[in-house]
UniProtKB/TrEMBL annotation:
Lineage: Bacteria, Pseudomonadati, Bacteroidota, Cytophagia, Cytophagales
InterPro entries for the chain: L-lactate/malate_DH, Lactate/malate_DH_C, Lactate/malate_DH_N, Lactate_DH/Glyco_Ohase_4_C, Malate_DH_type3, NAD(P)-bd_dom_sf
Species this protein is from: Marivirga aurantiaca
Alphabetically ordered keywords of this record: NAD, Oxidoreductase, Tricarboxylic acid cycle
Descriptive protein name: Malate dehydrogenase
Gene Ontology molecular-function annotations: L-lactate dehydrogenase (NAD+) activity
Ranges of residues in domain Lactate/malate dehydrogenase N-terminal: 1-142
CDD domains from the UniProt entry: LDH-like_MDH
One GO process term, biological-process aspect: tricarboxylic acid cycle
Protein family: Belongs to the LDH/MDH superfamily.
SUPFAM superfamilies: LDH C-terminal domain-like (SSF56327), NAD(P)-binding Rossmann-fold domains (SSF51735)
Lactate/malate dehydrogenase C-terminal domain sequence ranges: 147-301
């Protein structure tokens, strides 16, 4: 499998590193607009190959899409990240132009590619990628819910004082501080509802900390996080590579599912060789339905800025 990662910054490089360490891809091509940057990141990562025991070949190029030809998967991380105090939505004026141009370049050289969009505001950038490329809707996936769900499980594990591997849970809705919906009602510890262990106040705390998970890290780091985002993207790329049909909440173009149309929003999706193999419709209660509608309305407002 050949994977292109556009943007060799914090998230792009972390994603390339996890892909290589998991050793499932033959080739990763890093692309950046900054002269020599992707080449440098690729060389640095390749010098870890003998230490970390991987055979994936990582190369870097400056804005040369001919080197990305025939990629199976392309990840778009190019664009600016937020600074403390900023919302993801504030990035749209810079990132929309970058994502559109990158998406067009990618499909010129890899017409059969599956695109994973990471750049923020991610749901709107995923929508833009659909409009700019016209690719079938199964071949464009927004990464947000996989990360938000990992952050949800981290907070649940902290509250439960147990390993995160004991916890299951998912976050749907928009990838924004106000739009995401951590589904505490459905979260479990080894199949036991978390409400058996945590009271409503504790669950509310977990929910709120999950929603501001990105903002908390941006405040601590001075820029947005990269390890968990990189790991989340690499897990999705691995699911495509292995056709594993693993379920990740992902930003998918909806055509009536969850009562929404012509919008990309986070819903549980089965990921495999064809990208989005299936959108899973789960029964939401009235409060969750209401939140999903509000989240969709907010994403539509951001889409209108395009
Ligand atoms: N969806 C998510 O869950 C999630 C999580 C974390 C970060 N993000 C987003 O991912 C994006 C990248 O974040 P980061 O921390 O890696 O930023 P970064 O600044 O470290 O890296 C971005 C890279 O993109 C490059 N770039 C800019 N324009 C380009 C172009 N036209 N072509 C190729 N490369 C170009 C820059 O030179 C830079 O190296 C941001 O928009 C951030 O908000 C999303």
């Amino acid at each position: 499998m050949k994977v292109t990662v556009v943007g060799a910054g914090a998230v792009g490089a972390s994603c390339a590193e996890y892909i290589a360490i998991k050793n499932f891809a033959a080739e990763v091509v890093l692309v950046d607009i900054k002269e020599g940057f992707a080449e440098g990141k690729a060389m640095d990562l390749m010098q870890t190959a003998s230490l970390n025991g991987f055979d994936t070949k990582i190369t870097g190029v400056t804005n040369d899409y001919s080197k990305t030809a025939d990629s199976d998967v392309a990840v778009i991380t190019s664009g600016i990240p937020r600074k403390p105090g900023m919302t993801r939505e504030e990035l749209i004026s810079t990132n929309a132009g970058i994502v559109k141009q990158v998406a067009e370049n990618l499909i010129k050289h890899s017409p059969n590619v599956i695109v994973i969009v990471v750049s923020n505001p991610m749901d709107t950038m995923t929508y833009l990628t659909h409009k700019a490329t016209g690719l079938p809707k199964n071949r464009i996936i927004g990464m947000g819910g996989a990360l938000d769900s990992a952050r949800f499980k981290y907070r649940l594990a902290e509250a439960l004082d147990c390993p995160a591997s004991d916890v299951d849970g998912l976050v749907i809705g928009g990838h924004s501080d106000t739009g995401m919906i951590p589904l505490t009602r459905l979260a479990t510890r080894n199949s036991v509802p978390v409400s058996s262990f945590l009271n409503s106040e504790q669950l509310e705390y977990v929910k709120e900390e999950t929603k501001v998970g990105g903002a908390t890290l941006t405040k601590l780091l001075g820029t947005s996080a990269w390890y968990a985002p990189g790991a989340a993207v690499s897990a999705m790329v691995q699911a495509i590579a292995g056709d594993s049909k693993k379920m990740f909440p992902s930003s998918c173009m909806l055509s009536g599912e969850y009562g929404q149309k012509d919008i990309c929003l986070g819903v549980p999706a089965i990921i495999g060789r064809n990208g989005i193999e299936k959108i899973v419709e789960i029964a939401l209660d009235d409060a969750e339905k209401q939140k999903f509608t509000e989240s969709a309305d907010a994403v539509r407002k951001t889409n209108d800025l395009l």
